[in-house]
Write a structure and sequence with these properties.
mainly alpha, Helix Hairpins, Four Helix Bundle (Hemerythrin (Met), subunit A), 29 helices, 2 strands, about 65% helix
């Protein structure tokens, strides 16, 4: 049992510093089993999703306050009850984890296990806050600070997410140095702008007019005060207000363009790209160091498992430095692991069995687990056999379907269907082409019949393998959906499309399914080597950077909650723009012509009708944060909240822009570059690799620790007896 647990630690890059008595080992296996991990993950997910349904609820058709929709509000205590259940489950998980770990050296528990200790603090705050909410009610108690701490559990239960956060923390000094340089750049050009664009101007002929305002729009709009000038230049860094900020002065004198061009050249194109380069260099180094630490834990766990097998199971080995292969296979059989990894280990032990090898050394034992993170060919698909037909006709059909020309014809039919669908959509609303449209609509049934016959032939030829292949299942489900929609449309409307005055029609649904079928054309990519390599790299990046996506979710969640606390109901339309009737959420459609855009200045929050961009609920807050991160027109939000709330509100949006658009986006670019370069250099050329972990990305750069370092780490375990091998 102990050897199996240590092997599981090695496969999952976990530390071996946990209790090793029978009860603790069984509890440890249970806490890391798939059902327990799934329960904790679902609990964390539900806890995060409560933000959408608790007061103020996001269950409303539109976040535009002018619409007058009624929010769906759950009865009091419902969300708090669900939250209490989630907190109890997470509390039990935290208690179990703290019981299982062991203390090393003289270090305190808090210093050695800060995440577990922090979990107790967050749980205590959350329980107290829930009790206050139940006592006062969410209508009175709007702060609910526990919502800010909910992402903590999401991070605590994700090892790679914690590593990414640690790498970001270690990279912050270099990021801070570049941001300091950026601040000096902004300060210099802000002061220069206050002098270049004063309250009074000099005429082109050089005569100065005291007290006379000549073409003073630049000063009035963008450089009237220091904070106004600073915010204008911050927005200009993202090019969101370019060339608007330049045009008033540029219209007076073209030489003023040099000021804005120099500002953008230095800030946008030099400092920002320098930031990307520094983040790429530093973050990659720190992350590689973190991966080296994980690899060290794997080596320690493998050594621990080897020592347990050698010391506890006296299996009659003739050499003290070797262990029985039979016992090793038994331990592997009792170890929980993914089916792909189990089959890979079986393949690696077969040569020993075929050569009648009864004992393996420590080096051979470790070699079994080398490169195990790169999963090989799909085992489920290979185990599903193709039927062997006795009939000559059936064998002929099978050979025809298995040939590459069958797929070629299928892709050609999909391409023809795409051309037909494009023409149909183009003439759908043209009354003069209705006769042509009706004839083209008949051809759709030809493609439907072909897709039906194609899938039937594949099922006959592939048998069980058809249902084990994702591409075949995808084609089959879409074909069934297309056949169903087309038959319903034929029975209801005949050969004509449904009434185009209504919303989404059956004809539209059929075309949507057709568009999904067009994705089959992506299968021709492997026939073009450069395109196939780029596509494989893109897929690997998406799979390996899930931990970084967790960071994005984390910062979105925290900033959305802070935005709701600070700006809920801050954006309120003028009384004359509000509807006088409470509309039913489902049946009635409110008046959509409430705001006269011409009543406001062009380019403002009101004139652009951004009323739905607010912090009145969690879902709306996420959309606002996305709009600001994209930075297009984000200066509109700065101005609107400055005028309606406070000038200090701009700090929130600038902080979000720095964290999301400057730091996180650059980190994401750096990781993509790192991953792409590594794959391009040859790691993706192995045709049998389907997917790998993020550790496999750095596999070529990892160095195996020395045996002395491994033994020193094992000696720190208080319940483990070290035997030299």
């Amino acid at each position: 049992l102990q050897a199996s647990v240590f092997l599981e630690d090695a496969l999952e890059y976990r530390s071996v510093h946990h209790k090793t008595n029978d009860f603790a080992l069984k509890l440890y296996q249970w806490s890391h089993s798939a059902p327990a991990v799934y329960l904790v993950n679902v609990t964390t997910f539900l806890l995060l999703m409560l933000a959408f349904v608790e007061e103020p609820s996001s269950l409303i058709w539109s976040s535009d306050p002018r619409r007058g929709y009624t929010r769906v509000v759950l009865p009091p205590g419902y969300t708090e009850g669900v939250e209490l259940v989630c907190l109890v489950i997470l509390c039990i998980d935290t208690i179990v984890q703290s019981y299982l770990v062991t203390k090393q050296y003289e270090r305190s528990f808090i210093r050695q296990y800060p995440w577990i200790a922090g979990g107790y603090v967050v749980l205590m705050i959350s329980f107290i806050d829930v009790v206050i909410s139940l006592a006062l009610g969410n209508t009175v108690y709007r702060i609910r600070v526990r919502r800010l701490f909910r992402p903590y559990f999401f991070v605590q239960n994700t090892t790679l997410l914690k590593k990414t956060l640690k790498a970001i923390r270690n990279t912050l000094p270099e990021i801070a140095s570049v941001l300091t340089l950026l601040s000096l750049h902004l300060y210099f050009f802000t002061m220069l702008g206050m002098l270049v664009f004063p309250h009074t101007h000099v005429h082109i002929n050089g005569t100065h007019h005291h007290g006379e305002e000549f073409n003073n729009t630049e000063w009035q709009e963008y450089f009237k005060t220091i904070d106004n000038a600073l915010m204008s230049l911050v927005v200009l860094l993202t090019t969101a207000n370019n060339p608007d900020v330049m045009m008033p002065s540029y219209s007076e004198n073209r030489l003023y363009a040099l000021y804005f061009i120099m500002f953008s050249l230095i800030g946008t194109f030099l400092i920002f790209n320098l930031l990307t380069a520094i983040i790429y260099n530093q973050f990659r180094g720190y992350f590689k160091s973190s991966m080296q630490t994980s690899y060290f834990r794997r080596c320690v766990a493998l050594s621990a498992a080897y020592n347990v097998i050698r010391s506890e199971l006296h299996d009659g080995c003739t050499t003290d430095s070797k262990i029985s292969l039979t016992v090793t296979i038994e331990v592997l059989a009792n170890t929980c692991m993914q089916p792909e990894k189990r089959n890979l280990l079986k393949q690696r032990t077969k040569p020993f069995l075929q050569n009648n090898v009864s004992e393996i050394s420590y080096g051979e034992f470790c070699c079994l687990f080398e490169g195990i993170d790169s999963v090989v060919n799909a085992t489920i698909q290979s185990q599903a056999t193709v039927p062997m037909w006795r009939s000559r006709q059936m064998r002929l059909i099978q050979r025809m379907v298995m040939s590459r020309y069958f797929n070629l014809i299928g892709n050609l039919m999909v391409l023809l269907n795409a051309i037909l669908m494009t023409v149909e959509i183009a003439i759908h609303y043209e009354e003069s082409f209705q006769t042509v449209f009706s004839r083209l609509n008949i051809m759709n049934y030809i493609f439907v019949v072909y897709y039906c016959i194609e899938q039937v032939l594949k099922i006959i030829s592939l048998g069980k393998r058809y249902f084990c292949t994702l591409s075949c299942l995808y084609d089959g489900l879409l074909s069934i959906a297309l056949i169903t929609v087309e038959l319903v449309q034929l029975s209801e409307f005949g050969n004509q499309a449904a009434d185009i005055s209504t919303g989404l029609t059956l004809w539209d649904c059929a075309r949507i399914v057709n568009i999904l079928i067009l994705l089959r054309l992506l299968r021709i990519i492997p026939n073009f080597k450069p395109m196939a390599l780029v596509t494989n790299v893109m897929v690997q990046i998406i799979r390996s950077l899930r931990s970084f996506m967790g960071i994005i979710i984390l910062i979105y969640y925290v900033f959305a909650i802070i935005g709701m606390m600070a700006f809920e109901k801050a954006i309120d339309p003028p009384p004359g723009l509000k509807p006088n009737t409470d509309y039913d959420v489902i049946t009635s459609v409110p008046d959509t012509t409430l705001t006269p855009p011409n009543a406001y200045k062009c380019g403002t929050y009101q004139q652009l009708e951004y009323w739905a961009n607010n912090f009145d609920d969690f879902a709306a807050s996420l959309v606002v944060l996305w709009d600001v991160m994209v930075v297009n027109n984000w200066g509109v939000f700065l101005t609107a909240f400055k005028d309606m709330v406070s000038p200090w509100s701009q700090i929130y949006f600038v902080a979000w822009w720095l964290v999301s658009a400057v730091v996180c986006v650059n980190l994401f670019v750096a990781l993509i570059l790192d991953h792409f370069i590594d794959k391009w250099e040859g790691s993706m050329q192995a045709g049998n690799v389907r997917r790998g972990t993020i550790q496999s990305l750095f596999q070529r750069h990892l160095q195996r620790p020395s045996d002395e370092c491994i033994q020193d780490e094992l000696r720190k375990h208080p319940n483990f007896v070290m035997i030299t091998f």
